[in-house]
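Standup notes
- DV: blocked on the single-chain target, sequence here:
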Amino acid sequence: MRVADIMQTELQVIAATDIIEAAVAVLADHHVSGLPVVDDEGRFVGVISNSDILEALAEHNEPTERERIFTKMEVRELMTPRPQTIGPDASIRDAAQRMLYLEVHRLFVESQGRLVGVVSTTDLVRTLAAAKV
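- DV (later): unblocked, structure below
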């Protein structure tokens, strides 16, 4: 089975220049834990995750500092640049091994330099649960 067979193709994205508050809203509204980040030309430049935001909040104890994270800080300041990618023709075994080795929860799927989907640990578990083992 290939990554293309199980990946999610309806992606929500966030602009690198959007504020963190906007990213939190998209994450919550769409029940996802990470978003691809795009630049002004729509190029895939990073990923912002719940973990990135929680780590930033954990570093600040002052309420005003925490408020600033949500209302003033841009996504590009917290995002993980150069996110891990995989091709749609890769096997799901390869995807699972890469996620395990890299200690990530998702791989973005690129084809011919274009973002076409995302495969997550949830997708892999869902596939395994539906398989006859």
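- Follow-up: Strands lie at 14-15, 34-38, 44-49, 80-81, 85-86, 106-111, 114-120.
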